[in-house]
Structures are given as structure tokens and as C-alpha cells.
Write a structure and sequence with these properties.
Layout: E1 3-6, E2 26-30, E3 32-33, E4 40-41, E5 46-50, E6 57-61, E7 64-68, E8 73-76, E9 84-87, E10 94-98, E11 104-108, E12 119-122, H1 132-137, E13 142-145, E14 147-153, E15 158-161, E16 168-171, E17 176-179, E18 191-201, E19 215-224, E20 229-232, E21 256-260, E22 267-271, E23 274-277, E24 292-293, E25 298-306, E26 310-317, E27 322-325, E28 338-341, E29 357-360, E30 363-367, E31 372-375, E32 382-383, H2 391-396, E33 403-407, E34 410-414, E35 419-423, E36 437-439, E37 446-449, E38 455-458, E39 463-466, E40 476-480, E41 483-489, E42 493-499, E43 512-518, E44 521-528, E45 533-535, E46 542-551, E47 554-561, H3 564-569
């Protein structure tokens, strides 16, 4: 006589018909913890903060949370430098620093370059030296001179220079009136000062075997921004530091996807097909020489520090993916970065920049039209959801709205219509097939991982909560595969091994609701909280059966048969 027995509980495989599933696999496995091969509940989420309702992005900072009502990218910088870099909030990238009162001071990232150079007028002009009489008026103290200026922001960061001003000659120490200083730029730059420089050329004896470049611009004075003019009579020997920001540039206004490269002081971002890098340790300086252009528009960037090889940058695009290596602090030129373009196109789809990607110990995982793509530091990209979702199954999940999170070797994938957990890290965690894929009832608008590895979820109402950290258990629902019998049959007895013991807490009152399905109709159900035998009321003969288990109790086996005697005879198998 036929019987139905389940000794190990597995996740779901949506691409297979319920009849074709292997024993133990499920048609439905929602909010269930399968890490032990049994049915166990997760804990409910623990609320940790409230942010304004309608927020779309949150970022933990210090003991609190920052929130934005837009899809933004946030990059914390070095541990000893409390700064946050944000793209997507304003029409330009921004940088914020915490203030003593708990608020943030936000400025536009970078320092602008002034336009036209200052105009200099000597009080006692010298002749131009076009004839012998003019030459007689010149001396060893006579020099050619011009001025330029740079902006300085509230954080003492200096930008690139203006164009040089008019050129003239004067003697060292002559009084010169400098006008046309740079005007006050837009307030979002937070510019507070102007550095005024003038050209100085070192002395040559004429006996040098090699002519060296000894002309530089040296600091004359630092002035409040908006100063209309300055009178300069400083001797060359009293000038300040040499200009070092000749090639400094702010990032482009269209910069998105800002990211801090691990183990460096370098930032990276993109605009269209272009990839931009900041100078190491200078987040306000984005040299044009560091710019790289890919073949396709970039959608998302992630970075992973790989032992012995430095950090790898992963770039998902609208075409083929890329990896960029050679991002160590010593790499100061574009030529030292190795760019690898993969052949197979796996275009990323997302409605909100980096929402559809996450970095894992194996590499970057992102959402494509064919499934979740794993882009490793070495090796070829691959679709890791192919064994669970066929292409048509995947597109029904609305991947263009999908948000990704990472927790303890498991991907959390949430779209506007579905949510599921997929365990992929079998290096750091044991390779148990039982819990590879299961579904979730949560629909958070944003997921983020903290530095301690915990996963946090943001709800539409503004509640920020920590996954699996609450004090109560979350009810699960698990539905078995369809068991097809050789002929019409029925079951009259059953036994469910269930108790209320749950790892990490005293939940002895937990139980489960057992239901028997016949030809997709529930014909019997009862509450189980132990492992006693029970009778099933007659319901007629059917070809296809299945079981459903709901609740918070731990279930490790289910057995139904045509009679109590048959159940008892098969118990030696346990």
C-alpha cells in the first residue's frame, strides 16, 4: 500500500513542475528556516530606528541612521575621517561632515577652478625694454611676472588654478595692484577663500650643463572669497608654498554610483560610459588623466578587496560586464589599471542604480534580464539562478524592480511582486542543499548590511529593522511537492514529528498546523505539537497528494499512510 513520507525538508525549484520535484523539495517555502534540514521559524525583525515615511535609502552612521527620499549611493570614507560621499541626492555629488549638534554639513564635492586670471598693474611700471635706453633701466632684480588664483573651501581643500593673468615686468619687491580676483562661486561649493599665486623664476648662472625648469607659482596670500583687489609688495624670498594643484579637477556634476575602493583612500564613480577616479587621499580631486571610457553605459559599481591582488572594481553595464584591477594606492596612472571586458553580454536591469547589485565574498552579484549574474574577480560571469528559474519564470518576478541584500552567505532578493532568499556562499558556510532557495513575505524598499554582517531592511513607513533579531517567532508555510500515486488512493493515518524547541530561545509552546491536500484541495488539517499518531477522516480516493505545514514549531518528519498499522510497521525506518 502507498504511503507518503518526508524526512528532510528542502527549498523550492520554481522552474520544475510540482510533480517532477525530488522528494523533500517544496512547491512553497515561505519564511521558513531550512538550515538544519527541518522546518524551523525565523525570528521576526527587530525595529531599530524610525526615519521619515517614504524614505528610499538609509545609511547607518555612528549611533543613528541617515535617510534620503531618493535612490542615492553613499560611500563612507576612511575610519579616522568622518565623511560621507553621496551621489543622486543633488544634481551633483555631495560630501557631508557631522557637526557637534548631530546634523550634517553638506557641500558639493570638489573645488571649482576659477576662470579668467587676475589683472596686475604695477604702481611704478618698468619700460618694456625695446631699446637701449629701456635696457639700461633694468637690473638683476627685474623679472617677468603674472598672477593666478585658486579657490579654497571650508575644509581647507584647494582646487585647480585659474588661467594666468597678464604678463609684465617689475623688480622684486615692487608694489603691484592685483584686481579681477575670482568672484564668489555658487554657495553649494562652500568656498571660503582664494589663494593668490605669482610666477617666480629661479636664478641661472648660465653655466648649467642641463637647463632645468625652475619657474613656479608661489603663494602670495590667502584672501577671503569675494575680495576685489590686493596690493602685493612681497619679496620673492618671503613667498609661501609652491602651487601643487595645477591639474586638480572637481568630479563631473553627472557623477553617480560613488564608491570607496577598499584599502585605499580613492573614490570611484561613473557618468554614462565614463569611469572616474579620485586621487588617493584627495577625494576633492578627480584628475582628467584618471578617466576611463567603457563601451557601454555603466549601471552599477561594486568593489571587493582580493588578497594579494588589491581591490577589484566590478562594473555592470547595459551590455557586457567589466572588471578593473590595479587599484592600489600606488597606482596613480590609468596605464597601471587592468581592464577586462567579458564577451557574453549580461545587461543589468534596475530601476534605481545600485539597488540591483551587491558585493559578496565571491564577487559582484547583479540583476540581469536572464537572472542573477555572479561576476567574480577571476573567471567568467555566470547566471547563478538558472537551475531554479527559467528565463520566462525570472521575468515574471519583475527583475527591473529588484533590490538585493547579503546576509550570512545568502542573497536576499526583493522585487515589487516577489521576494526570496538564495544561499550561494558554500566556501564560508557549509553546502547544504536543503536551504538553497526559499521565499519571503517581506517587501522592504531598501536593504543594507552593516559592518558586523547584520542585515537591515527599510519599510515604506520608515521603519528600519534588523533581520532575524526580534523576540518573537515568525510563522512559516511549507508545501510539499505533489506526490502522484499509481492509482486512486487515500490516507487515513498520519504522524508529524514536531516540538517547540527552537535554537536561541525558549519557545516550547510553538506548534504547527498540518494540512493534507488531495488534487489541490485541502481535505484535512489539525494542530500538531508532538509526535503522536492521529487519524485522518475519510475524504475519497485521489491521484495526487501533498502536505502543508504552517506555524512556528520545529518539524523534522512527516508520515501519512493508509492505516495506523502501516504507520506503526514503518517506524523502524526512523
Amino acid at each position: 500500500m502507498p504511503s507518503l513520507r518526508i524526512d528532510n525538508f528542502y527549498g523550492i525549484v520554481p522552474r520544475l513542475h510540482p510533480v517532477d520535484l525530488k522528494p523533500g523539495y517544496a512547491v512553497r517555502a515561505e519564511d521558513v528556516r531550512l538550515t538544519h534540514g527541518t522546518l524551523m521559524p525565523w525570528r521576526e525583525r527587530l525595529p531599530v530606528a524610525d526615519v521619515p515615511a517614504g524614505s528610499l535609502t538609509v545609511e547607518p552612521f555612528g549611533c543613528g541612521w541617515l535617510a534620503w527620499d531618493k535612490c542615492v549611493e553613499v560611500a563612507p570614507w576612511l575610519p579616522h575621517c568622518n565623511r560621507l560621499f553621496v551621489t543622486g541626492d543633488a544634481p551633483y555629488p555631495t560630501v557631508g561632515r557631522p557637526q557637534p549638534d548631530g546634523t550634517f554639513a553638506w557641500c558639493r564635492l570638489g573645488v571649482p577652478c576659477p576662470g579668467a586670471g587676475p589683472i596686475a598693474t604695477p604702481v611704478s611700471p618698468l619700460p618694456a625694454g625695446d631699446n637701449a635706453d629701456d635696457d639700461a633701466a633694468l637690473s638683476n632684480e627685474t623679472e617677468g611676472r603674472d598672477y593666478l588664483a585658486t579657490y579654497v573651501n571650508a575644509w581647507c581643500e584647494e582646487g585647480g588654478p585659474s588661467w594666468p593673468g597678464n604678463e609684465f615686468i617689475c623688480n622684486d619687491g615692487d608694489t603691484v595692484i592685483v584686481t579681477g580676483l575670482p568672484p564668489t562661486p555658487d554657495p553649494e561649493w562652500c568656498v571660503t577663500g582664494v589663494n593668490l599665486y605669482r610666477r617666480v623664476t629661479g636664478f641661472r648662472t648660465g653655466r648649467e650643463q642641463v637647463e632645468e625648469h625652475i619657474t613656479s607659482y608661489c603663494l602670495v596670500a590667502t584672501l577671503p572669497v569675494g575680495t576685489p583687489s590686493y596690493t602685493d609688495s612681497t619679496l620673492n624670498m618671503d613667498l609661501g608654498a609652491v602651487l601643487t594643484t595645477l591639474e586638480f579637477m572637481p568630479p563631473p556634476a553627472c557623477l553617480r554610483g560613488i564608491l570607496a575602493i577598499p584599502e585605499t583612500g580613492t573614490l570611484v564613480g561613473f557618468c554614462g560610459c565614463d569611469l572616474f577616479f579620485s586621487a588617493n587621499g584627495q577625494p576633492w580631486n578627480w584628475p582628467e588623466a584618471e578617466r576611463m571610457t567603457l563601451d557601454y553605459p555603466i549601471v552599477s559599481l561594486r568593489a571587493l578587496d582580493v588578497m594579494w591582488y588589491g581591490a577589484t572594481i566590478f562594473a555592470a553595464t547595459t551590455g557586457t560586464p567589466y572588471t578593473i584591477q590595479g587599484t592600489s594606492p600606488g597606482c596613480k596612472k590609468r596605464e597601471c589599471r587592468r581592464v577586462r571586458q567579458y564577451v557574453m553580454p549580461f545587461p543589468m536591469v534596475t530601476c534605481c542604480s545600485n539597488r540591483g547589485s551587491v558585493v559578496t565574498p565571491m564577487g559582484m552579484v547583479y540583476v540581469s534580464t536572464d537572472g542573477l549574474v555572479l561576476l567574480p574577480s577571476w573567471g567568467q560571469p555566470k547566471v547563478i539562478t538558472d537551475q531554479w528559474f527559467a528565463q520566462d519564470d525570472w521575468r515574471k518576478l519583475r527583475p527591473d524592480t529588484m533590490r538585493l541584500g547579503w546576509y550570512a552567505g545568502t542573497l536576499f532578493c526583493v522585487s515589487d511582486s516577489d521576494a526570496f532568499m538564495l544561499t550561494i556562499d558554500t566556501e564560508a558556510y557549509s553546502n547544504w542543499e536543503t536551504y538553497r532557495l526559499s521565499s519571503l513575505s517581506d517587501r522592504p524598499v531598501f536593504l543594507c548590511s552593516a559592518g558586523n554582517g547584520e542585515l537591515f531592511m527599510l519599510n515604506e513607513d520608515g521603519t528600519v529593522s534588523q533581520w532575524n533579531a526580534g523576540t518573537t517567532l515568525r510563522p512559516y508555510e511549507w508545501e510539499s511537492k505533489w506526490f502522484e500515486s499509481p492509482g486512486q488512493t487515500y490516507f487515513l493515518a498520519g504522524r508529524v514529528w514536531c516540538n517547540g524547541e527552537h535554537a536561541g530561545g525558549n519557545c516550547s509552546s510553538a506548534s504547527a498546523d498540518f494540512a493534507l491536500k488531495a488534487d489541490q484541495r485541502i481535505v484535512f488539517h489539525r494542530i500538531v505539537a508532538g509526535h503522536d499518531y492521529f487519524r485522518i477522516k475519510p475524504y475519497g480516493r485521489h491521484m495526487i497528494h501533498g502536505v502543508i505545514l504552517r506555524g512556528t514549531g520545529t518539524v523534522w518528519a512527516v508520515h501519512v499512510a493508509t492505516s495506523l498499522r502501516e504507520l506503526a510497521l514503518e517506524q523502524h525506518g526512523r
